[in-house]
Design goal:
This protein is an alpha+beta fold. Helix content is about 20%, strand content about 40%. This is Flavin reductase like domain-containing protein.
Amino acid sequence: MKPIAVKDLSDNFFEVIGKEWMLVTAGTKESFNTMTASWGGIGFLWNKPVVYVFIRPERYTFEFIERSEYFTLSFLGEENRAIHKICGSKSGREVDKVKETGLKPLVTEKGNILFEQGRLSLECRKLYTDVMKEDCFIDPAICKQWYGGAHGGLHHIYVAEITGAWIKG
């Protein structure tokens, strides 16, 4: 993987996140978990390039993100949809996602996990977190549609500075 300056990223992240999806990974070389996500974004906040992601507390990856200063986002390309399906439907509590998907972990200088299959990978340092609150929904229909029952709990929001970026090459 080849480093790229964050300012040189040219992807359309509406398309990348919404259609291609991403892996959110946290933990150490010895113990990490990854999950598929299709909700989030990239922008500029507090004079920093940032990502924001949403993780439900029921997800195994949540435990790793809560313990970690950093997490990574890996964009594998649509040709790896099968990997995303497994990482989005199976829990790392029950299966070894690396073994089941063929993912090839790489460790950054800061000790975070990326994947060799990533066409684009971002290393992110947490800056802010909060829990979505039912009474903060201006449109209560959204809360009713996406939360409670089989959907699970309200997401935790993480805003993180992009501290490193790599492209396949």
